[in-house]
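We treat protein structure as text, and this decision shapes the records that our systems exchange. We quote a single record here, exactly as it is kept in our systems:
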Amino acid sequence: MEFGFARHMFVGALMCGAAAPALAQEANASGAAIAASQADGGGIPDIVVTAQRRSQSLLSVPLAISALSDETLATKGISNSAALATAVPNLQVSSPYGSTQPNFSLRGISVANEFNANQASPVGVYIDDVYIAARTSHGMGLFDLDRVEVLRGPQGTLFGRNTTGGAINFITKGPKLKGTEGYLEAGYGNFDTFKVQGAVETTMVEDELGIRIAGNYEKGDGQFHNVAPGGRDPGGVDTWQGRASLRIRPGNGPLDIKIRAYAGQNRGTEAGIHGLEPFRTGLGFFEVNESRVGENQTDAWGVAANISLELSDAVTLTSITSYDGGKQNLQQSSDGAPIDVLNINWRSTFRQFSEEVRLNYESDKLKLVGGVFYGWDRIVTDNSFYIGSALAPGVDGGFFQHYRQTRRSYAAFLQGDYNLTDKLILTLGARYTADRGHYDDGYAYLFAGSVTDPQTPIATTVPCAGAPGSCAYDPAAIFILKGRNNALTGRVALSYTFDNGLLAYASYNRGYRSGAFNGGSYTSSSGINYVDPERVNAYELGLKGRALNNRMTFSAAGFYYDYTNQQVQDLRAGPVNILVNAPKAEVYGGEVEASLRIISALTLNASAGYLHARYKELALQGVNLAGNDLPFAPHWTAQAGIDWKIIDAGSDTVTFSPTINYFSRQYFSPFNSENAPGTGQINSELQQAGYAKVNASLIWVHDNLQLRGWINNAFNRKVYAYGLDLRGAGFPYNFLVPSTPRTYGVTARVSF
């Protein structure tokens, strides 16, 4: 019955495709890989993507993909990865730390209510095809990008690692080995926010040697007013990033070497928190009363080498080697009050290495991509949890937690497209993965002391199977755990191209997310476990192409997921964190996206997504949660906008680009609005009702000069972005993170 409903939804989506238009965004004229050729008759430009590890027209790839150029990102006001949800249907982005460590939810698949830094995202994040393991590094500022590709659905063959939900690939601009170019951009906005970015590219040897250097800097006051005397305002920005890309192509021959290095840091203040209710009396939504507003201190850096060698016209060998690192020091006052109830210092350092070698083969009938992958990543964590009156009334204390987690992943993969006829293509792909994990040097202890005092250890809690304080302090005691699992994933698809260019496809994909250690257990070692891997069997039907004399591009997809063993966090009184598997969930829905050039000066783009994501089997704390929605999975999402060139006078143009984004109700907890008996939970607080936000920009262009005025959240909608149950953990409040208020400003840019 339910699958039949999904089928009818999909058919309806196809019928609405022409009227429910925004996959093929207006291409960026300066992006070599985005803006290909202009279609005849003033049509929508083609978009070239590399979602299948080779260059293809977006409309010829039998996958659900959204591709956003750097111009589209600027027009829609997307300056960091946390804002991507405003342009991609069925995508949610949330975090307990503001824009730091974003949690991506794609078609309902996410880390759910997990907030620990050691967990891998089920939506794989990549920079130039390099997998980024540390979720802290996912909260990057977006600058000097060629495009962003968002692949919806499990990517169990060519991307592979932990991609049960999908993949997001940030593709940077690199040297084109032709001449010199660049730009400089500066802007100012409310909250005394100043931003500058730029890039310069020069060619030392035409067609052989070039370099591109880019940077981004932003600094601004907190976006939430703090009424506490002397307290800093939360939501402040203080960040910079830099990137250098070197390209070497000796003799303009078959060898192409691209080396990219980057570094950046963030020193902004923590997110605004709504916590203890007595201290919110008389406050507005964008106000807090907090005496200890901390900083979100994060660092990220890395280097990667992409070496490609054309062995023949049909065969290309590619090696991608990367080494990345970073750290976080998040000082979070988690009570939203001028008294110390709960303060947390999240501290971790990250390292990772990866190597992928793949071979591309192409003939008239067969296209193959195959290779091997090795990935290693390590996180070392030192968290401190300060709890007011933890030891006795007026006697503060807390818990210190240390562990080192190391993961290794080995994989081999092969995918082929075979032309059964000139129009019918069969795709077969498989990937075998072996994952190994180690939780080492784990220890935790109960200590006496406040936020400003030295920690005095009282009792060992890890390793200790009993209640906190029941095991004598032993500085030599450590906890060790190992985990391992293997998986076979893959893809089967049939795609057919009609005479008019319309592409129809049907596919099956199997995705896998490795087993995981519970990084949130510090009051007892009994909660440190290794849970089973997640698996997704995904079925999808899709249709994409052009219409109305090439003035419209559209895409529609319907999907059904059999989802098992989602990894969710069960937070109990103590506080005790337990990582568990949700045995079964069912996800189905559909998306339509399109872009329509109504006249040469007016383009409409829009998208819509429907999502049914519910647990079929799940029980937490004695409560049957079958039938509940998955967290961060609204039933409806929609975006609509126009690009209207209201003035076109030769070298001067003025373009108006408003957009509206709608999200229906979403829950932040697997409990939805239910409460576990005897816990004190009020889970009805952990949700956000449906809402819409409006963004807009007005852009004047004169030759190589550009002036852009912009506004985001124009009507100052009051929206929660994240929520976590703390009442059930023994605290007298829930943890809620409000989304940002209205922001606006002006930006000037000169290109050369």
